[in-house]
Amino acid sequence: MSLERLFGLPDKRALIIGATPIGEATQALFIEAGATCALSDPGSDPEAITTAVEQFVAEHSKIDILVYAATRTGTYPLTDMTLDQWDAMQNCNVRGAFVAVRQAVLHMRDNGGGTIVAVSTMGSLHPVLKGNAAYGASKAGLNAMIRAVALDEQSHGIRANTILPGAVPVGEPESGAVRLGGPAVEPGRLMMGMGRCEDVAAGILYLASPAARYMTGQILTLDGGFLIS
User: Which of 25, 83, 183, 208 is the most exposed place for a label (fewest CB within 10 A)?
Assistant: First the structure.
């Protein structure tokens, strides 16, 4: 099998939710791989997310690939964090993903299947920064949801996987967030230094491509060696 057949996305229609640095890098790589790809940033509003999926399908006839790259970040002292801050994190990182995935699956079922990739964080497996209770919990919920979708939708030809970036730029933290330190800022813990958004985009391309046809319900961790440091 040629490299183009393994990693190319010719005639595929891909929607990326979340105009994050990772989302933007993924769009550029998908287009290079031959996909028709749109980047939408509807925030965490359920109606706006639903509309984004429906508009994409209306314009392109179907959706083959959904990437949920929307991410809300921020570290907060546990006893100072408000319920509004907690809820905002969950709304973007897991509730919004549920809405996007649910809507995309309805169309994928009608068109013989599809592929879903969600952008999580290595911090959903292991504490990275202090004050990450809300962020880690929301992304751990995302991991579990995507694994469940993979099981539920396999019979419809839908694969679903999650990618877990490590020290990679994901956008500015929310207002009110504070820097509290933690393992990720300790000398030597980032064995390979900071990662790039293009590193994550390459992993997303793999998960969305024919090369990963035998992979579903899994998490791909790109942490530059943090978990073994």
Answer: 83
CB 220 within 8 A of CB 162: yes
Whether the full predicted model's pTM is greater than 0.90, yes or no, is yes
Boundaries of domain holding 78: 3-228
Cα three-residue angle 161-164-170, rounded to 5 degrees? 120
Q: Does residue 101 have a pLDDT over 90?
A: yes
CB contact burial 80-111 (16+ within 10 A = b; e otherwise): ebeeebeebbbbbbbbbbbbbbebbbebbeee
Is residue 201 packed enough to be buried (19+ CB in 10 Å), middle (13-18) or exposed (0-12)? Answer: buried
Q: Distance between CA 132 and CA 139 in Å, rounded? A: 11
CA 120, distance to chain mean position in Å, is: 5
Determine the Cα–Cα distance for residues 86 and 88; give it in Å rounded to an integer: 6
CATH at 15? 3.40.50.720
Residue type, 116: I
Distance between start and end Cα atoms, the chain = 36
The number of domains in the chain is 1
pLDDT for position 190: 83
